[in-house]
Amino acid sequence: MLGVPLEQCRSREISSSMDFLVLFLLYLAFLLIGAVMICIFTKNQRLKGLVLGGAQVCSCVIPQCLQRAAQRLLHQLFYTRNPAFVALHLLLQGLVYAEYTCEILGYCQELGFSLPSLLLPYVLLSANLVFFTMTCSANPGTITKANESSLLQVYEFDDVMFPKNSRCSTCDLRKPARSKHCRVCDRCVHRFDHHCVWVNNCIGAWNTRYFLIYLLTLTASAATIACVSAAFLVRLVAVSDLYQETYIDDFGRLQSVDTVFLIQYLFLTFPRIIFLLGFVMVLSLLLIGYLCFALYLAATNQTTNEWCRGDWAWCQHCPVMAWPRSAEPHIYQNIHSHGVWSNLREIFLPATPSSEKKEK
User: Would you please indicate which residues are annotated as catalytic (active-site) residues?
Assistant: First the structure.
């Protein structure tokens, strides 16, 4: 009813499934190593110089016309406001839910899954789209002549990362503490966190709450689809008694179905579901990691901009990140944290320009 006969995959080599697993593990390792290396590169000037030197060497090989085309494309995607990543986000989300609806939903109903568990991804999708729209359209905290004076009174200046009496060279506005000029949006943003290409908007004081809930519902929806897909495969194996089957290997010996052969059989029988499961699993891991990082910043009242520009005290003892002996770095101290609940209240109940008061 749900699959094809076991004999259809007996002629396949078991090594192919092993190759698939090895490649998948290598892919996960590549993602983790890449994330660590990006963090290291962004904090070490010498490593940045090596990367730039490698790029210059490559520029001697790649034709100039391709270089200019690539630069224009990258500038259009990452340094101008455009809906390209918003459309890509919605497209990927639509494809995942279309596959879930067309493939997994029907099979799970046949296997007797409860209706609420099958409809939970759609509930999370509805909430996610609402907060996705709010994050895209909300004012992140644009600084103007009208609210400049009031925003200057919100946060204290630390005279390290945010000195007093500094002005934005582009907007010609006095820069409140924790603000930054976004080159993509061409505006100064109050409590600037980062510019998110996936929502085509800056994340600042007045839409961070929407962004966090959007990120939470997106992570939950991906994890829920992954759990339902994995539960379907597990229940399928349980009700079909595949572990009790046997097969003849390439050497003519009778073998019992093991985990490796079972993975291969499921991959050959339900390739679209396996690919969907692999995609949402990797996506869930990445989103969970980023969600934990975003919640950590919220709980400690930091922004991504401050975290990236600040000096990691624990990294100063690392040989890769060691500071030159002649340098005496000014370690940024977070003076804005006043406890977890106060920090979260500041994000989810931000003060409006008319009611903002001096932070104590």
Answer: 196
